[in-house]
Amino acid sequence: MIEMQASEVSTLNIGKNLKGELGLLIVSGEVSCGNETVEAGNMLVTENAEESSFLLSKDSHVLLFGGLPFPEERFLFWNFCSTSKLRLEKAKEDWANKRFPKISGDDTYIPLP
Predict the structure, then answer these.
(1) I want to staple 10 with a disulfide (CB 3.0 to 4.6 A). Which of 6, 41, 58, 95 is the partner?
(2) What is the distance between the alpha carbons of residues 63 and 18, in angstroms, rounded to a whole number?
């Protein structure tokens, strides 16, 4: 992950330095790509970083992450990611039954959606 802050309007051409997919999490400001403008609190995702150019607004703050996609399929549910649907179901069951290790000093519990 790379953190970037632009003190003035800037163009980001990262294609020569990154192959594959790219995600930009906009912490503050705005980022434009083509005809799309994405505001703070949202994420912009492109499947081909090599062909993408981004316009960052003045005082924008973004987090970049990406690279080549994994060779195997991934399955997502809430905060869980796995290459196995069975393992994902097990994680759901374990979370619902509070079988995950507790974090010292944190007594909160967020129910499974």
Answers:
(1) 6
(2) 14
Q: What is the mean pLDDT of residues 67-93?
A: 94
Sequence-distant (≥ 6) Cβ neighbours of residue 105 within 8 angstroms: none
From the number of C-beta atoms within 10 Å of its C-beta (0-12, 13-18, 19+), residue 109 rates as: exposed
Which distant-in-sequence residues (6+ apart) come within 8 Å of 53 by Cβ?
Answer: 11, 12, 13, 15, 33
Predicted TM-score (pTM) above 0.85: no
Extract the runs of DSSP E, i.e. beta strands, from the chain.
Answer: 2-6, 10-12, 21-28, 30-33, 36-39, 43-46, 54-56, 60-67, 75-77, 80-82
- Residue 71 backbone zone (phi > 0: left; psi -120 to 50: alpha; other: beta): alpha
Question: For residue 50, which of 23, 16, 12 has the smallest C-alpha distance?
Answer: 16
Pair 112, 96: CB distance under 8 Å: yes
CB atoms within 10 A of CB 24: 27
